[in-house]
Specification:
Elements lengths: L4 H10 L1 H4 L14 H8 L3 E3 L5 E3 L3 H8 L7 H31 L6 H28 L7 H19 L5 H29 L15 H33 L5 H28 L7 H19 L5 H29 L16 H33 L2 H28 L6 H19 L5 H29 L8
Antiparallel strand pairs: 1-2
Helix pairs in contact: 1-6, 3-8, 3-13, 5-6, 5-8, 6-7, 6-9, 6-12, 7-8, 8-16, 9-10, 9-12, 10-11, 11-12, 13-14, 13-16, 14-15, 15-16
């Protein structure tokens, strides 16, 4: 099985922003980029996939109150670009999950198609881990983005368990894919809050690096391909473990088939690593790390060749292999960052300017997110009034909530008119359906706590999910263009 070239290239492309700065603000002539639009979209408080709320630093308000801000330090500039790269990868993660759902939603699942789709998801996810790790390395200890990045790390740990645990069985995988969708969507919202926090106390300035050579570009893609193979090695060594534990005595034919598949994959990884070493220019930051991978692969190859089918001796070696493959992924993630640490691959990926129609759509989605936060505030007031048994206050709060919901419906309707043919159109349709349900729930509030509790809780969840959905809509709306003046 070969990893989808499109997935590899797309994942590699988004890594550009980790170590390169796109055209951005200057102190003398502010030029809002997509990052600035994203930051403006972050509400005063956002909720991640675990429903944990944290304040997002209001950069524009701070700037207005305090006057001109100092230029961001170079590491903060690169942090902002890295967070944008992570958001782009999270969109790719959502697309990879959708592809897996399509593979599983059939009468008979194609094992090869499932394995390919799962490998694609893990490739994009590994890239996202690399970006987040690098962002945490870049963030100063006193930067407001520290907390958000730590929460993203926790979420990725949970995502890894869900993604690697997919088996190709629809009954168990489809619910987990829904969980993954929630975590990726919540992660986008979290990253947008983190982005606003990261640049809340400074102004971005251009600090472009030289363009990476085609040789370094090929090296980076080769390392990314090796990471994908290492994930496949983990799957295959798990199959060897399963065969060794399944029967007593071990099924010799099943063992030989599993061992042969693992051996072939390890040898494929060796060839790819050798090619990466040949590609690495003298003095490139990945040279030492690739040598480390080479030594580890020699040990792994010997262990696989030494498997005999006897559980007593093989199972300890299988455990060693699992640890070695995991460590190899971590090492290659470091190698990838080191390979492109002195240059930029961003300028090769420049997007055309957004049309005025798309800019209006982006602003409309930003406005809808602001209304969704007003809905949460109005809901809090309504909940307080209902729980207090104050009918007059309930009527006032209910009217305010319905007014906010109707305002959101009007904005979303205008956004849908702007979004014909745009990537945000499907997400806006989801918002439309949710708004109708929210309107019905709000209208049904009676002021009796015992009967209203369920509706109020559902509204809380729906408004929170709506913010996450509109955050995803904003990314989709601007995915094919750049916002600039």
């Amino acid at each position: 099985m070969h990893l989808s070239v499109a997935v590899v290239v797309a994942a590699l492309a988004t890594l550009a922003a980790v170590l390169a700065l796109a055209p951005s603000h200057t102190a003398a002539s502010p030029a809002p980029r997509r990052a600035a639009v994203m930051a403006a979209a972050v509400p005063a408080a956002v909720t991640d996939d675990n429903n944990v709320t944290d304040p997002a630093a209001p950069a524009a308000a701070v700037a207005a109150a305090a006057g001109p801000l100092p230029n961001c330090a170079p590491n903060v500039v690169r942090l902002v670009q890295g967070i944008n790269a992570h958001i782009a990868l999270q969109q790719q993660e959502l697309a990879a999950v959708a592809a897996l759902q399509k593979v599983l939603n059939v009468a008979a699942v194609d094992p090869a198609a499932f394995a390919q789709a799962k490998a694609n998801l893990l490739t994009v996810f590994n890239s996202a881990v690399i970006v987040r790790m690098n962002n945490q390395n870049l963030v100063p200890a006193d930067n407001a983005a520290v907390t958000g990045l730590a929460m993203l790390a926790q979420t990725q740990a949970a995502v890894l368990a869900l993604a690697t645990g997919l088996t190709g069985t629809p009954a168990t995988d489809l619910p987990n894919l829904v969980m993954l969708q929630m975590k990726f969507s919540g992660g986008i919202t979290r990253n947008q809050a983190t982005l606003a926090a990261a640049m809340s106390a400074c102004t971005l300035v251009n600090n472009a690096q030289p363009q990476c050579s085609p040789q370094v570009m090929a090296l980076a893609q080769g390392i990314l391909n090796n990471i994908a193979i290492q994930n496949q090695e983990l799957q295959l060594v798990g199959q060897v473990q399963t065969v060794l534990q399944a029967t007593n005595p071990v099924d010799a034919n099943a063992f030989q088939a599993a061992r042969a598949a693992l051996l072939a994959k390890v040898q494929e990884g060796v060839v790819l690593r050798m090619n990466n070493q040949n590609l690495a220019p003298a003095g490139n930051g990945a040279v030492a790390g690739l040598a480390t991978v080479a030594m580890a692969q020699a040990a792994e190859l010997a262990l696989v060749q030494g498997l005999t089918g006897l559980p007593a001796t093989d199972l300890p070696n299988v455990a060693t292999l699992q640890m070695d493959f995991n460590n190899g992924i971590v090492q290659n993630e470091k190698n990838l960052m080191a390979a492109v640490s002195g240059c930029s691959i961003n300028t090769m990926l420049a997007l055309p300017p957004c049309t005025p129609n798309v800019v209006s759509l982006g602003n409309g989605i930003v406005a809808n997110i602001a209304v969704q936060n007003q809905e949460l505030a109005a809901l809090a007031a309504l909940t307080t009034a209902v729980n207090a048994g104050d009918q007059a206050a309930t009527a006032t709060a209910k009217a305010a909530l319905l007014a906010a919901i109707n305002n959101g419906i009007a904005i979303r309707t205008a956004n849908q008119a702007l979004a014909v043919g745009n990537g945000a159109a499907p997400g806006l349709a989801i918002v439309a359906n949710a708004q109708l349900a929210e309107q019905e729930l709000a209208m049904g509030v009676t002021g009796v706590a015992a009967t209203d509790a369920t509706a109020l809780a559902m509204l809380q969840m729906d408004f929170t999910n709506g913010i996450a959905q509109n955050s995803a809509n904003l990314n989709a709306a601007l995915a094919q263009c750049s916002v600039s003046t």
